[in-house]
Amino acid sequence: MGTGGGELLKKFNHPAKNTQVTEAWEPNIKLLKQTLAIEGVRVIENEHEADIPVADNSLDMITNSHATFDAELVKQKLKQNGLFITQQVGALNNYSLSRYLDHNYQIAYPDNTLFNTVMTFEKLGFEIIYFAEYRPVMKFFDVRAIVYYASVIPWEFPDFSVENNLCELQNLAKIIHQFVSISTNEDRFIMIARKK
């Protein structure tokens, strides 16, 4: 699910004829058709990221890296003993930086936490095999890097622009000049669940 450009999937070395992928973003769909599809992987274009347009009880494993999912739909599509493996960007990703740049910032996906994900799958009868959280530090050594980063992740930095945030950016530039860098925390979690 949410295959992106297929870089992670290629590392799995899974037989192409036994692999099908979904993707909703048009530039990635084109890329997948030029790479994975010619190797024999079935590329499925999704209208919505969480869609899994395959037969019920037909999949041995579903992997998901940062994509939206519907837990009930995942259960419906997996065979008995099928695995769901997901790695997600958690709700608190870059919260301190987002909040600094926008004092009214509201978390875009507040329910996307490891706790909520594990509880949802347990309620659906899954066996939780593994889960973990990680909150690595991200350092910025130049305010231009912050400008670029905030520009490409609009759900974490809504209404960001140099003009709107000039005062905050100037303050961050002073801090970087004095202390070499500023830090924010990313939020990642992984869960592996088996359908009973």
Describe this structure in words.
This protein is of the alpha/beta class and 196 residues long. The protein is built from 7 helices and 8 strands. The chain has helices at residues 7-12, 26-34, 71-77, 95-101, 114-123, 143-152, 166-179; strands at residues 20-23, 42-45, 59-65, 78-89, 126-134, 137-140, 182-185, 188-195. The strands form 3 sheets. The chain has a 4-stranded mixed β-sheet with strand order 3-4-8-5. It is globular, with a radius of gyration of 19 Å.
Summarize this structure as a short list of keywords or feature phrases.
globular; 196 residues; two-stranded parallel ribbon; alpha/beta
Tally of DSSP helical segments: 7
Give the class from helix and strand content and strand pairing: alpha/beta
**Count of distinct strands:** 8
Largest sheet strand order = 3-4-8-5
Rounded to the nearest angstrom, the distance between the terminal CA atoms is 21 Å
Order of helices and strands: HEHEEHEHHEEHHEE
Fraction of residues in helices?
25-40%
User: What quaternary form is this?
Assistant: single chain
What is the general shape? globular
Q: State mean pLDDT (0 to 100 scale).
A: 96
Q: For the report, how would you describe the main beta sheet?
A: 4 strands, mixed
What integer value in Å does the Rg equal?
Answer: 19 Å
pLDDT < 50 stretches: none
Provide the β-strand percentage band.
Answer: 25-35%
